[in-house]
Amino acid sequence: MVTIKDVAREAKMSVATVSRVLNASGPVSDETQRLIREVAGRMRYVPHSGARSLITSRTETLGVLLPDLYGEFFSEVIRGMDDTAQKNGFHLLISRAYADRHGIETAIRAMRGRVDGVVVMSPDLDAKSLLDLPSTIPVVLLCSVPRGNEIDSLTIQNCRGAKEMVTHLTSLGHKRIAIIKGSARNYDAAERLRGYRMALREAGITPDPSLEREGDFTEAAGYTAALKLLAVKNRPTAIFAANDSMAIGALSALRQSGMAVPEEMAVAGFDDIPLARYMDPPLSSVHVPICELGARAVGLLLHGITHKNDHARRRE
Amino acid sequence: MVTIKDVAREAKMSVATVSRVLNASGPVSDETQRLIREVAGRMRYVPHSGARSLITSRTETLGVLLPDLYGEFFSEVIRGMDDTAQKNGFHLLISRAYADRHGIETAIRAMRGRVDGVVVMSPDLDAKSLLDLPSTIPVVLLCSVPRGNEIDSLTIQNCRGAKEMVTHLTSLGHKRIAIIKGSARNYDAAERLRGYRMALREAGITPDPSLEREGDFTEAAGYTAALKLLAVKNRPTAIFAANDSMAIGALSALRQSGMAVPEEMAVAGFDDIPLARYMDPPLSSVHVPICELGARAVGLLLHGITHKNDHARRRE
DNA sequence: GCCCTCTGTGTAAACGATTACATATTTGGG
DNA sequence: CCCAAATATGTAATCGTTTACACAGAGGGC
Lengths: 316, 316
What we know:
five-stranded parallel beta sheet, DNA-binding, alpha/beta, elongated
């Protein structure tokens, strides 16, 4: 592997000058500059990032800690993150971890020294004590239970989105609206449930426990829950699924049971995945700007990094 | 940040001994071992990976170069990769890049010195000269045009899968089977098309150009293509979409046109995404073990790394 | 009792970059 | 014409590890 010394030798210059040219630091004559650029290019020199980070104590890498995410979401959030990261000359070190506290701590430890900051997605409601994670480096919580004002955090407007969708349903005249809930310990799920109940109450409807069914964000769960809802006496006229996968599962169950959608039963989802509009009938769904969310998380993180973690925390 | 020196000082030992304990290299007395472990733990010491990689010239990190991928695929492939990587103590540095040659080369350059090897997904048919990528480090091509026997490569069994599906359709009696093709310059798409034609020929059917419609793997493309197919004189009785998204778009178009599926028109897809079976009727689709594919790619890469890139190349 | 082999530990030289400081040369103001 | 400031370059310390080598003491075979 060719090092800066090799380049210096070949160009008959000192390593300091080579370094100055390559980092555009300090004054160098135009001629030397050209020469060194040419030599470095020809020799295909690439600085050793380890050596660099050793002396500068910056890695130009961001850690991303993901839970066991499936489907669309994952891709989109990473796309957004990578875009912003690349624009700022940063790389992305991605790792999946158990959503519990131990898993996250282990993962963060493993990233120590490799990254300048971490975006943590820890949707698990129980992972309470994330607070005392070894936060010498900036951390941004994404779609996780916000922790006071000590850590930057960014969440989907779950409650608001759910509330608006359910209010839309009530405004259409629905009185009995069921919900297929997301995973029990999931933060997003809990917030969507909250929005659902809030909307009902504001419409003067008392939430009915028999219309709140368990789910885990999979098509299968949506399917099962929908079948059960059909068996409920005093059947609902609308189903709000906490995500699109479950909504699609529910649609499938309704179809098989010969229910007319939306005449006999309306169905709404959350996430607005691309194929929602290719369902029959098109699934109305709460839009989530996933990609943008990733981008903003990285933006927030970079802000924390440039301010050496000594900045006003945000919570959005 | 606490360094190995701090630990050594605190434990009243030399840095060499501390290093030996932490790397389980060389002989150390049990007592010293315990002591150092305790001190290191208490001080929350984490080795500086840069310094380590400087001297060992290993980063314990794998690069992953992804094209502009959407949806399920992305998530799954990364899941598989990360699993295998973590099991072997490796991290994943992920980057999206333009699929063309320049984009890939730039991205690989940027990763130089940060990774011990790279998995490259470059589905673009035109990115021919990937051969001369700066391959001092091991490279595995995933779902890309294989390059002779000079680079390890791993692909989906596109041709075989497509062929089997189309053969299944002919065996059901279909004579006029249309295909909605994937992106024009995409390797997977080209292979699926090849399999489709192969199956037709083996069934004694001459591929009809008017039944081969352009597509780009999106629902919208499937929708449009299906509408056009309905307008073809001597209409097909089956549609094979090169992926599930397009199949779903096509289903939507057929439904809106009042076609009975599968009675009047059969539809098949490729990828077997989870919700395929929740379509109406359930979409039959060629299964692709995406997660496993990622795992195998990383396995192959790790093999190349341990053999210092001096191993028999594989092409699967 | 001597030498050889182990075991346990320490010393110091790498690894490849950045950068403070030193030095040499040029420029320019008075 | 001289001195200060600016420009261009080099020297060497430094970052945090690993590891070859050195060394001391213990144990054992003869």
